[in-house]
């Protein structure tokens, strides 16, 4: 069982995978980008992937949404895992914050620490790199430079970095929701009694040139008292004013009023695609004893 995730060693994705998959055996497959982790499932290189989906401070992780919406046909969300994230400011040597000239970071980490960066490192340039782990590696290999990175304690340990300041995220309750991905043909994970279900879908709105078009589309869900817990739009990549809409719904896509609501939505939208129906807080969708 190969499981793809955003690498290299020391990323929060690796940390989340280690905790989320506790008690199962698997072969980790680190990738250079989130898109590559999703694509590894689409191509069959990986059996599963664990990728960040939503952060409590910064919101949705757009590379994950875009990869699922535009670049895959066979990948489905089959589970989720909430991971508490603690950002550290890390350097290659002990250095005063006032002397830091550049901060390396993944965009998500920089956004989660925006207030800290403004207050404590206003004179430093913030530079984006592919992962928090890569940021820590870069500052660790050149300790003579007055650089620092945002990353995990595990990354500091892996690359020999020095933690200058702990817990620099702007909110104490900094949680990232990760999602498990699998091929649509994969055997679904076993159900767990009494755990609620969530369905994630994406649709194209039709009739966008008349007032209330989106409300009309969503009314087929609200009229059935289906609870929508998240809605987000993303450009459709076909011109200004054209969007995709992502929804999270309470319930499973193949049962009861949720199934009815999705079928009714198909009559109001150009396309409706269920990205996954999965249990909230369920076990890792890895076969026990897989290797």
Write a concise synopsis of the structure shown:
The chain has about 290 residues and is an alpha/beta fold. Helices cover about 25% and strands about 35% of the residues. The strands form three sheets. Strands 1, 2, 3, 4, 5 and 11 form a six-stranded mixed beta sheet that branches. A five-stranded mixed beta sheet has the order 8-7-9-6-10. A four-stranded antiparallel beta sheet has the order 13-14-12-15, sandwiched between helices.
Structural descriptors:
Alpha-Beta Plaits, 9 helices, globular, single chain, five-stranded mixed β-sheet, 291 residues, 3 domains, D-Maltodextrin-Binding Protein, domain 2
List the helices and strands and how they pair.
Elements (H helix, E strand, L loop, with lengths): L1 E5 L5 H9 L6 E5 L2 H10 L4 E8 L3 E2 L1 H9 L4 E10 L3 E4 L10 E4 L1 H6 L1 H7 L4 E4 L3 H10 L5 E5 L1 H7 L2 E4 L9 E9 L13 E9 L7 H10 L5 E8 L7 E8 L5 H11 L2 E11 L12
Parallel strand pairs: 1-2, 1-3, 7-8, 7-9
Antiparallel strand pairs: 3-4, 3-11, 5-11, 6-9, 6-10, 12-14, 12-15, 13-14
Helix pairs in contact: 2-3, 8-9
């Amino acid at each position: 069982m190969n499981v793809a995730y955003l690498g290299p060693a020391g990323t929060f994705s690796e940390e989340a995978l280690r905790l989320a998959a506790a008690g199962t055996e698997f072969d980790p497959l680190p990738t250079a980008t989130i898109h590559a982790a999703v694509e590894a499932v689409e191509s069959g290189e990986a059996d599963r992937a664990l990728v960040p989906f939503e952060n409590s401070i910064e919101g949705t992780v757009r590379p994950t949404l875009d990869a699922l919406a535009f670049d895959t046909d066979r990948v489905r969300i089959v589970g989720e895992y909430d991971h508490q994230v603690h950002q550290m400011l890390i350097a290659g040597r002990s250095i005063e914050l006032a002397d830091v000239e550049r901060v390396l970071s993944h965009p998500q980490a920089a956004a989660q620490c925006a207030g800290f960066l403004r207050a404590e490192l206003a004179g430093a340039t913030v530079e984006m790199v592919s992962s928090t782990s890569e940021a820590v590696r870069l500052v660790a290999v050149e300790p003579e430079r007055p650089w620092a990175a945002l990353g995990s304690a595990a990354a500091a340990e892996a690359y020999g970095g020095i933690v200058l300041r702990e817990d620099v995220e702007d909110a104490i309750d900094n949680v990232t929701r990760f999602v498990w991905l699998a091929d649509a043909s994969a055997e679904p994970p076993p159900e767990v009694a009494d755990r609620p279900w969530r369905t994630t879908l994406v649709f194209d709105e039709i009739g966008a040139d008349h007032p209330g078009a989106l409300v009309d589309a969503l009314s087929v869900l609200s009229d059935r008292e289906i609870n929508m817990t998240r809605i987000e739009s993303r450009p459709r990549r076909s011109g200004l004013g054209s969007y995709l809409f992502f929804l999270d719904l309470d319930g499973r896509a193949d049962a009861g009023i949720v199934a009815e609501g999705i079928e009714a939505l198909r009559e109001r939208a150009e396309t409706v695609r269920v990205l996954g129906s999965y249990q909230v807080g369920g076990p890792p969708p890895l076969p026990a004893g897989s290797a």
